[in-house]
Amino acid sequence: xxxxINTQQAQxxxxxxxxxxxxxxxxxxxxxxxxxxxxxxxxxxxxLIATITHDTDDFVTQRxxxxxxxxxxxxxxxxxxxxxxxxWHYTQGTLPTQQQQIEATTGNEIMAQIATECExxxxxxxxxxxxxxxxxxxxxSCTDGNWWVTRAxxxxxxxxxxxxxxxAVWFLQILLASPDIDxxxxxxxxxxxxxxHREGLLDKxxxxxTAIQWEQLKKYKPLPENMALLTA
Length: 232
Fold this sequence. Notes:
Elements: H1 2-27, E1 30-36, E2 39-44, E3 47-54, E4 64-68, E5 71-76, H2 79-92, H3 107-120, E6 124-126, E7 129-132, E8 135-143, E9 146-151, E10 160-162, H4 165-177, H5 181-201, H6 211-218, H7 228-231
Antiparallel strand pairs: 1-2, 2-3, 3-4, 4-5, 6-7, 7-8, 8-9, 9-10
């Protein structure tokens, strides 16, 4: 009799744990991110749980494939059925665990950000740096999450820290627009400091702002895409 009671208690605890886990999993929004028409990533919240792809081999009737960690675990004749399969097994806790990718800023992502900012100023990007009308202005890159810029006219190629790809490329625009190198760097650092100061005021409660700070906020404008007018 005692053995039967213990068995029932253990079964009840197991069922309770399964129900609790199912409720937790069910609270996460399951969504599909389209990579291409035939390739989708399936997420629960921000966590990748599976992928759906399309098999183009001849004589295949169930072309839609569910993949976890690059391994096929299910096939169906429609994308929707694959999506339902993933959702059901995930909420039941029976879907294999997808190994998460380590997020890191790749060289391609860095170059894409630099290219976006250079396009605003009509700068050209080559392997050895950034140019304007065949004149090298300097180099921009990101190391361990820290953006920096160097100017071509500097013999030591000292890396000047920046807070973003935009700030780094903007510095090169200031170099191009200002005739004096020292004035160029002073203008850049001063402008960054002033913008950061005024943006900081936006976060303060209204009743804590002084009359002078209110006047500073009146003059605040978000940075436009093209900084030529500010650096002229």
